[in-house]
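Key idea: predict the complex, not the pieces.
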Amino acid sequence: MSPRDVTPRAPLYARIEQRLRDAIAEGRYGVGALLPTEAELCATLKVSRHTVREALRRLVEAGLVERRQGAGSIVIAREPPRGEVFGIPSIDGLMRYGDDTRLLINHRGMAPLGREEAALAQGEVGEMWLSVQGLRIGQDGRPLATTDILIHPRFAAIGPDLPERGAIHHAIERRFGVEVAEVVQEISAGPLPAAAADALRRKRRATGMLLMRRHVLTDGQTLLVSRNWHPAEGFTYAMRLRRQEG
Amino acid sequence: MSPRDVTPRAPLYARIEQRLRDAIAEGRYGVGALLPTEAELCATLKVSRHTVREALRRLVEAGLVERRQGAGSIVIAREPPRGEVFGIPSIDGLMRYGDDTRLLINHRGMAPLGREEAALAQGEVGEMWLSVQGLRIGQDGRPLATTDILIHPRFAAIGPDLPERGAIHHAIERRFGVEVAEVVQEISAGPLPAAAADALRRKRRATGMLLMRRHVLTDGQTLLVSRNWHPAEGFTYAMRLRRQEG
DNA sequence: ACGGGCGAGTTGTCCGGACAAAAGCGGCGC
DNA sequence: GCGCCGCTTTTGTCCGGACAACTCGCCCGT
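Result:
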């Protein structure tokens, strides 16, 4: 048995798929052009329709071709779509805290949205939202950030069960069977508000960074808005985004 | 023709797929369990093997089942994997500038990496990298940010052709046929360095925000590192991440 | 000139068959 | 007890056929 026999032979449909991929890549069938029909491929290549169809199905799966009953197989891309999306594995990557920090809540209750808050939350001025205020504490008891969260009234029942560890939005997703579709995040820097400076044991008007985050549901509605003040000194907000498959 | 006839009947394979999906979701076949064999399904459902195979192929495609020749079809997930990845449509979303800003380069040339730069770039101290310094200018001529870029020596030939508009990493990708796989971004706040404060027409030690970004290639190598100082006043770094399909 | 209907061509669904390749299981030997 | 071998079972590849559903172009009627 010669070394040549060790190499497993690719299935016929895979070889036909590759031939068609090459033909498309070389521009023999440009974008918008029709590939040969199934019948033509069967006749030309001397294979069954079943085999041709499997090859074509894979081209569809790869995003190179679109097939329409009665019309034929049309080339829609010269190359497999390459991902341009860069992403993070989960929202938790935005949150800045591992499971070793705790949220100390010092106030929770329904409160009317002010003008600024209504704009942030995309709610109505005066509308009653669940307002939660607290301090994020590290493992050593050191305060890391102040936090100020507004939760949509639809999910206000979560109030008594807010998690000390882990993300509030996850708890809401689980409890109410909803799903965050989008997160809008804004980062700015400026002097710490007086209350935040005190809570974080920093001088009044020391520089801080404000992380504002709005979680949006699939239907476009705001789930919650959070504002977190961090002391700027020694704080770096890091993020790692990876290219996603196309 | 009654209204009932208007509803197109789902193909047989789709109905079988759905039955199997329901059975998996209800826990009738738990994760790790074997589904009935093709032969069993054909006999039970009184359909051809072709139809059963198509239904099973779709379960594989959906990520619920794995099939192994000789062994059978094993359930690997109870529910279709739900995306946890949140992403941005492209890196351009990180860059802060539309096409209406320009990069005014005031220095470019090979320079050795210092200690701090070597750490940022994940290169060697003393290694010669292409160093580019400049000012990001708005449409009205107002300075928006200072920028300081280190480009890997492998791509130093881009030096004379750095784009005034648009992203440098795109120009490098195109010219050298490489691909950014990952971006690491770090945001911090602190007093503007003297040179940056002057260039941005701000008081010395005014608060600024530093955006550091490292672009990593598919092989893990650094393409470039950029550091941009923005005045903190009036500057908000915003980002919108959307949940990606699973 | 425009719209509708019809026919030819093309893909989609579904049937049946055959052989190959891989995995699993049981029995036997060391 | 472990490993090897042979047989059975299960999925993978590929063939062929038939009918349904859809698309597109052409022709005819208004």
